[in-house]
Amino acid sequence: MSNIDSYRRKFISGLAGVAATATVAPGVFLRQAHAKAPDEPASDKVRWGILIDTNKLTDGGDACIAACKKEHGWGDEKHSNDAQKSQWIRKVTVTEKLTGHTVTLPVMCQHCETPPCVDVCPTGASMKRADGIVQVNKHICIGCRYCMMACPYKARSFVHEELQDQKQNTPRGKGTVESCNMCVTRVDAGKNPACVDAAPEALLFGDLKDPESKISKALKKYGGTQIRADLGLNTGVRYWGI
Q1: Can you say whether the dihedral through the CA atoms of 163, 164, 168, 169 is positive or negative?
Q2: Nearest residue to 179 (alpha-carbon basis) of 234, 132, 138
Q3: CA-closest candidate to residue 142, choices 7, 35, 49, 1
Q4: What 3-state DSSP class applies to 117?
Q5: Phi, psi at residue 116, to the nearest 5°?
Q6: What are the pLDDT digits (tens) for 137-196?
Q7: What distance in Å separates the CA atoms of residue 201 and residue 193, rounded to the nearest whole number?
Q8: Cα–Cα dist 152/102, whole Å
Q9: Per CATH, the architecture of 31-240 is what?
């Protein structure tokens, strides 16, 4: 048994008695990412964010979902129960009760400034980089799923099955939790997240801390809606049209 397997067993055993409580006009697109040297740490001088104009998403986010699946290789796993399939990004339909107006939008990890998933993780596997990107370190995730219970956006999945043909840039593993990581390897290489490139007319990616960035100017001029803004998490993903 490896050291990490031994640690996982001991930790889970120790938790057995613990209860879980746990614009520029809308649609304008411009690349805002800058390549990061391999040995250069993430910097808190930037905070990456995504602005989604639901009015421009004629497919409700299907292209974004397809691009995410292709980039990270999730969604094709064989499961005895389809409810156990991974979903890094999903379509959600929202209806305004008073008017009956319906809108469909993509929902993924919202990359909160104060992420609840990070607060409850006992091993530090759920973490937020200095540049605001929230992700999971699969090497130290013990699969307790506290982060899944803590996430108000239901943005995390648990890997139930053995995985085949994994993507080199996206390590995954049975018994661990996973979610949108804002295509961190692409961002570090100076590229946009895959979902942004899949729907450039509707998604805008950039530095929320840079007042001169397109995303900052758009948010300052037209505002942006946070899902569950009442929680005060200051999400890195914002929406128009909801």
Answers
A1: negative
A2: 138
A3: 7
A4: helix
A5: -60, -30
A6: 999 999 999 999 999 999 999 999 888 888 888 989 999 999 999 999 999 999 999 999
A7: 14
A8: 21
A9: 2-Layer Sandwich (3.30)
